[in-house]
Amino acid sequence: ICMSLGMEPINKKRILGILIAFAGCAVMVALTAGSSSSENNAVSEVAGNLFFLFNCLGTALYVILSKDMLKVYPSICVTAWSYCLATLYMCATTLLLSLSPDIMHFLCPDCGGNIWHVPLGAVLALAYWIVMNSAIAYSLLTWANKYISGTLTIGYSVLQPVTATLATALILLWRLFPSCSSIDDDGATCLVAPSWGDLGAFGVFIGLYLIVITEPLQAVSKDEENDEDGEGLVRA
Q1: Cα angle: 44, vertex 46, 47; to 5 degrees
Q2: DSSP for the chain, written as a single string
Q3: What CA–CA distance (Å, rounded) separates 106 from 100?
Q4: Rounded distance, CA 63 to CA 160, Å?
Q5: Is-contact 161 28, C-beta < 8 A?
Q6: CA-to-CA separations, 87 to 30, 63, 94, 104, 135, in angstroms, rounded
Q7: Taking Cα atoms as reference points, which of 190, 187, 188 lies closest to residue 38?
Q8: What is the average pLDDT value for the chain, to the nearest integer?
Q9: What are phi and psi of 98, to 5 degrees?
Q10: pLDDT of residue 90
Q11: What is the pLDDT of residues 8-59, one digit of tens each?
């Protein structure tokens, strides 16, 4: 997206790296996904993938649109104001969707009609997601976006399935959670063990390597010059 908008120089090797990383990520997700046992599960899986696609698109647009603001404001301020606006949008969206029981049942079939109830077992996981995977992660993402290209900033997101695979392997190795292969009950909560599809991680690393080595130096040096000018004004 950055190259198509003229924000970064077009580089064939970098485009190849993006395609290889995407292919490796797609292989990991597609070949390790469990088969759907019903039509409802298939619909939910397709809807989940579409929501994830919009999530990735939203993150990419956030990185692109915040570039200009980062030239003027500190990264923590850009992140904070983005979260304030996002909170208002999410509250309005949640309230509107909650007016439809059918939509709420589709989004949360396990809620049993009580969509505002948070189980005690989910409190720690929810707190971790809010603090670590959302606030801190986006603060670091915005900070990195100030000094490197948008392609490299968002490129590291392809490491998510690789990280998930490594975490799953460690959890199963330490027997902290049951493996789905050792449980006969389809409704039981379990983790899918790593499989041959996870070899797509090699494509992820190769593609990310090509993205890193083709990072445009002029973008980095320009940001550094702006920082040095700002520091000189502060000293003066």
Answers
A1: 65
A2: -TTTTTSS---HHHHHHHHHHHHHHHHHHHHHSPPPSSHHHHHHHHHHHHHHHHHHHHHHHHHHHHHHHHTTS-HHHHHHHHHHHHHHHHHHHHHHHTT-HHHHHHH-TTSTT-TT---GGGHHHHHHIIIIIIIIHHHHHHHHHHHS-HHHHHHGGGGHHHHHHHHHHHHHHTTSS-BGGG---TTS--BPPP-GGGGGHHHHHHHHHHHHHT--HHHHHHHHHHHHHHHHHHH-
A3: 10
A4: 17
A5: yes
A6: 33, 18, 10, 19, 12
A7: 187
A8: 83
A9: -70, -15
A10: 92
A11: 888 999 999 999 998 998 888 777 665 445 556 677 778 887 888 888 888 8
For residue 186, what pLDDT is reported?
A: 61
Instruction: Please report, as a single letter, which amino acid is at residue 180.
Output: C
Distance CA 148, CA 134 (A): 20
